[in-house]
């Protein structure tokens, strides 16, 4: 007996998700609001492909020790390695470099798209996710960084996140470089330990001060028993770094930030210079009307990507949420960025300063859901034209009704299943959420009429007939009406308008 072939198992790859119509529409609505903010600042869109040559992306991913680890790569027909982009910044640097003679600097641009990480997926950690970036290439001044922070704050408020529930935190990688030099990690031989220290500092919001101390010292063991080797600093070195990253939590005066870190590090030249830049940025944003509780200096901001060379910043949401362990925690970061003055130089050999930030779209959507601020366009399901006769002539008449509705701006579809089981057509309409069903049998056709079934009102009346305690007693409209076929558009639009008014009344609008 022939063995039956095994059926192919349908399975979604780990770290990837399917997206529903509601998610897509909500994302589009959110992106539209962010886009309006970017456009108001004079930024223009650009788009780069999902694939780049692997060497153009470079080795910038955090928590990896191998060149180009963490990316999905393939070889093309010329045996050149290409990789799916892991962010939108490295491709922008390639685009600017390749078109440096045509692009007007400063180049102010934004783009959104999918990025990919070949990393172990986990709760809230995906291998494919969307980012929405804005960058200024060719502007060396602190004012370009200040503008990024203000634009990030404006984007949060455009999405309905109120003041007091977000903050833009600012630091400077040169402060961190100076600190590492001050604690004795300034030599080239210390490069790996410096990265370990920065990664430890970047875990402050996740592990707290005590966890960071362990990572700066011998190492830290997590709840599962896995051990992460630390930077091996001594107690004095750990104390200096902890004093820095705990500064914001202790409530330092923002206007005296540079003086504060000068005090901590005994006027170390590199630290003092970078601290002065942060002080200038704070002055610029305050002069522009951004209160000190919206954009603040925070020495614990590190940013994981290694191409940052100056200012770094993060947008953090401050409201509490419950995590997958049932713990109440602060929501945390939904975006960030910084200055990357050396990224274009890799290709051109020219100093081309650049700064920008990236919003994590999926994570921000989760935040908006928690706040009840996720606005979805009110897309009404299509009107269903039912099929009472399956011959070619009849189908042509039904199809014309559908096209007339569409041309009038009304979503509509003709039933495509087995038309002989009319009950299934109404079941389909119910599952689809159709607001109206159009019915025309032979009798209606001969009379030049159509039956229009108000499925929303019909469902409401059916519900009230079985739930007398919740009867609204408002004046009902008929759940089904007869209309002249020539009046199809007017009759359908009248019912849709009445349904829309019901929704407004129910929402208290």
UniProtKB/TrEMBL annotation:
GO molecular function: ATP binding; histidine-tRNA ligase activity
Residues reported to bind L-histidine: 87-89, 117, 131, 135, 303, 307-308
Ranges of residues in domain Aminoacyl-transfer RNA synthetases class-II family profile: 29-382
Record InterPro entries: aa-tRNA-synth_II (IPR006195), aa-tRNA-synth_II/BPL/LPL (IPR045864), Anticodon-bd (IPR004154), Anticodon-bd_dom_sf (IPR036621), His-tRNA-ligase (IPR015807), HisRS-like_core (IPR041715), HisRS/HisZ (IPR004516), HisRS_anticodon (IPR033656)
Keyword entries, A-Z: Aminoacyl-tRNA synthetase, ATP-binding, Cytoplasm, Ligase, Nucleotide-binding, Protein biosynthesis
Known catalytic reactions: tRNA(His) + L-histidine + ATP = L-histidyl-tRNA(His) + AMP + diphosphate + H(+)
Subcellular location: Cytoplasm
Domain of life: Bacteria
Swiss-Prot/TrEMBL GO biological process terms: histidyl-tRNA aminoacylation
EC number: 6.1.1.21
GO CC term, one of those recorded: cytoplasm
PANTHER family: HISTIDINE--TRNA LIGASE (PTHR11476:SF7), HISTIDYL-TRNA SYNTHETASE (PTHR11476)
Subunit structure: Homodimer.
Family assignment from sequence similarity: Belongs to the class-II aminoacyl-tRNA synthetase family.
This protein's name: Histidine--tRNA ligase
Record organism: Roseibium alexandrii (strain DSM 17067 / NCIMB 14079 / DFL-11)
């Amino acid at each position: 007996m022939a063995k039956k072939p095994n059926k192919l198992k349908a399975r979604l790859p780990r770290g990837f998700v399917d997206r529903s119509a509601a998610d897509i529409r909500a994302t589009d609505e959110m992106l539209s609001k962010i886009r309006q903010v970017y456009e108001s600042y004079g930024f223009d869109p650009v788009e780069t492909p999902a694939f780049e040559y692997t060497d153009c992306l470079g080795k910038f991913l955090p928590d990896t020790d191998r060149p180009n680890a963490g990316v999905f790569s393939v070889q093309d027909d010329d045996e050149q390695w290409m990789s799916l982009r892991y962010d939108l910044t490295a491709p922008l640097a390639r685009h600017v470099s390749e078109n440096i003679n045509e692009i007007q600097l400063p180049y102010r641009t934004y783009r959104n798209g999918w990025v990919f990480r070949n990393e172990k997926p986990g709760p809230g950690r995906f291998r494919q996710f969307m980012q929405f970036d804005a960058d200024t290439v060719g502007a060396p001044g602190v004012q370009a960084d200040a503008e990024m922070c203000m634009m990030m704050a404006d984007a949060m408020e455009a999405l309905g996140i109120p003041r007091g529930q977000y903050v833009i935190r600012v630091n400077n990688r040169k402060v961190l470089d100076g600190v590492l030099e001050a604690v004795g990690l300034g030599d080239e031989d210390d490069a790996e330990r410096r990265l370990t220290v920065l990664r430890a500092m970047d875990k402050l919001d996740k592990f707290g001060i005590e966890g960071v101390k362990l990572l700066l010292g011998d190492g830290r063991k997590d709840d599962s028993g896995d051990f992460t080797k630390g930077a091996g600093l001594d107690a004095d070195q750990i104390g200096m770094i902890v004093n820095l990253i705990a500064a914001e939590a202790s409530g330092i005066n923002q206007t005296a930030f540079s003086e504060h870190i000068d005090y901590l590090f005994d006027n170390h030249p590199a630290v003092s210079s970078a601290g002065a830049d942060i002080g200038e940025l704070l002055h610029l944003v305050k002069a522009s009307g951004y209160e000190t509780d919206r954009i603040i200096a925070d020495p614990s901001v590190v940013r994981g990507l290694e191409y940052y060379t100056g200012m770094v910043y993060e947008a953090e949401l401050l409201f509490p949420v419950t995590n997958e362990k049932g713990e109440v925690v602060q929501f945390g970061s939904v975006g960030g960025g910084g200055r990357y003055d050396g990224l274009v130089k890799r290709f051109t050999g020219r100093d081309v300063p650049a700064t920008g930030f990236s919003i994590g779209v999926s994570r921000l959507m989760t935040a908006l859901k928690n706040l009840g601020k996720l606005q979805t366009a009110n897309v009404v399901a299509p009107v269903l034209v039912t099929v009472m006769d399956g011959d070619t002539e009849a189908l042509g008449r039904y199809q014309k009704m559908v096209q007339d509705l569409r041309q009038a701006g009304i979503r509509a579809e003709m039933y495509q299943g087995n038309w002989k089981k009319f009950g299934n057509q109404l079941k389909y309409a119910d599952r689809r959420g159709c607001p109206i069903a159009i019915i025309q049998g032979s009798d209606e056709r001969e009379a030049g009429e159509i039956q229009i079934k108000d499925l929303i009102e019909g469902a409401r009346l059916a519900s009230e007939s079985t739930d007398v305690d919740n009867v609204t007693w408002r004046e009902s409209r008929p759940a089904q009406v007869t209309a002249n076929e020539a009046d199809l558009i007017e009759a359908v639009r009248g019912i849709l308008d009445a349904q829309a008014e019901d929704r407004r009344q129910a929402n208290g609008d």
